[in-house]
Amino acid sequence: MRPDLFDSLIAGPCSAETHAQIIQTAEGLKGLPLSYFRAGIWKPRTQPGAFEGIGDIGLEWLVDVRKRYGFKICTEVATAEHVRAAAAKQLDMLWIGARSTVNPFTVQELAEALQGTGIPVMVKNPVNPDLKLWLGAIERLERYGVQVIGAIHRGFSVYQKTKYRNNPHWQIAIDLKQARPDLQLLMDPSHIGGRAGLIAPLAQQALDLHYNGLMIETHYDPNVALTDAKQQLTPAVLTELLLNLKPRSQNERAQNDLAELRDKLSIIDEGLLELLQERMELSKQIGILKRNSNTPILQVQRWEETLKSTIEKALNAGLSSEFAEHFIKMLHEESLRIQLELSKTNDAR
Ligand code: PEP
Ligand code: MN
């Protein structure tokens, strides 16, 4: 990844599952300029009985990643107990998940537990599309001296199935950025998209919309992941994705070129309309002549010759014969309609 594309890049598995899984994933990521290596230790699951995280032992594995690869490490905290356990291992950053941001009691508990630890925090958006709740959680933490360094946009819950797992509601993230330009705004395309195939276009969008960074779930083998298997990327796929991101300036240039070509198209279309108007004017004059000289409107031979020569000329010009046929028939039909109208006005007189 070009280092100037984003300020922050967070990658690592949705959940810490085994020591080997954590190490294998970190090994795959070691060439990337990660700001933090992530892994969920305590997992908020929708269904009881699902894998609810490996617990405190996962912190040891994260510490091992820091030691072996030099990555800073982070995890999600949802209770004061989580904060104490994470602080004891000197985690470098903690994030607050969507299901916690939504609840001011939880945020209050976390703010009190975080006070004085000095650990920076990132705050995911709440599950419901409420900008004030997101900003309120950030402010609640700050009132306890917590250094909130970033906000993470992970999308908002939906009932109906849509293209995305979570509805992005882009405007909320844009408004948050406007309200708090001092914070980093990261996109979590994994939870917005919910599918591996959507992560790359969302990451590009993050770049185009001037986000400061990305949090992307990464697993050495997503097929065997215990949580969020569909949306995790292998380290190799993540590396490829980052290499393929088009820098903003390049994208802006493409947009400018596109606008210029579209302007040219509009000018040609206007010219075509003027020519059509002229053509129909001529057709009217011919109609008047035909009417006054009692000449039949449709002259089959002349029409057949016109059709044939138009198709020939179109083919010579590199246009398709179907298009040429369609086009000249439409023009002819309209001319006939105009001339028939004229003959009716004559009958009426
Ligand atoms: C996660 O990052 O794994 C997670 C549970 O995220 P969210 O709070 O966005 O659902
Ligand atoms: Mn997840």
Structure description:
It is a single chain. With 349 residues, the chain is an alpha/beta fold. It is 54% helix and 10% strand. The protein is built from 13 helices and eight strands. The chain has helices at 19-29, 57-69, 80-88, 98-101, 104-114, 131-143, 170-179, 189-193, 196-208, 235-244, 248-292, 300-316, 321-348, and strands at residues 8-12, 36-38, 73-77, 93-96, 121-124, 148-153, 184-187, 213-217. The protein has an eight-stranded parallel beta barrel, surrounded by six helices. Helix 12 (300-316) packs antiparallel against helix 13 (321-348). The chain is elongated. The termini are far apart. The model has no long low-confidence stretch (mean pLDDT 93). The chain binds phosphoenolpyruvate and manganese (II) ion.
Radius of gyration: 32 Å
If helices are DSSP runs of H or I spanning 4 or more residues, what is the number of helices? 13
* Bound ligands, named by name, code or SMILES: phosphoenolpyruvate, manganese (II) ion
Uncertain runs: none
Q: Spatial order of the strands in the main sheet? A: 1-2-3-4-5-6-7-8
Report how far apart the termini are. Answer: 79 Å
Oligomeric grouping of the chains: single chain
Percent of residues in helices comes to: 40-55%
Question: How many strands, which pairing sense, and closed or not: the largest β-sheet?
Answer: 8 strands, parallel, barrel
- Tell me the β content: 5-15%
Number of strands: 8
Q: What structural class should be given to the helix and strand makeup?
A: alpha/beta
Order of helices and strands: EHEHEHEHHEHEHEHHEHHHH
Gross geometry: elongated
What's the rounded overall pLDDT mean?
Answer: 93
